[in-house]
Design a protein that fits this description.
Elements lengths: L11 E5 L3 H13 L3 E5 L2 H10 L4 E5 L7 H9 L7 E6 L8 H7 L4 E5 L1 E2 H15 L25 E2 L6
Helix pairs in contact: 2-3
Amino acid sequence: MHLQLPAVIRHSILIVDDDLAARRQLCRLLAANGYAVIEAGNGRVARGLLAAQEIDLVLSDIFMPECDGFELMAAIRAMERPVPVIAMSEHESWTGLSFLDAANDLGAAAVIEKPFRADVLLRLLDETLIGAAPNASTVLFGAVAEPEPGCIPSGLEWVGGRPAE
């Protein structure tokens, strides 16, 4: 299968998730919406990619082998030019702790609970990238009020699984 990419690439996004199926879903969704997508299966690989290339935003799972999302966020904060991180994770009700709240406290630009609707993630990406822009305080009137509808490939309405019904 070949994806038809839009003519203009918007931003580069590093997807970090040890779940290959979820990573592939995210890659399809973001590529269909004009993002340059780079992927890593854990935080250790992601750290190497961040050191080697220009990345605008990191979309990272929290629980991964070798280097988890918390360790990755700490490494990103220590970078000369830190990039915003959106942390994602499934609901962790069995522990009584909110790992997404912890990610937020550790400096994540935003958090999202898996599974999530594709359109919600696309809106969150746009808002986070606009907020991370060097002149983020200067946003043209109406620039965020009516975002263009995102391109949601068939079968990707939900990413990271299906919600419990």
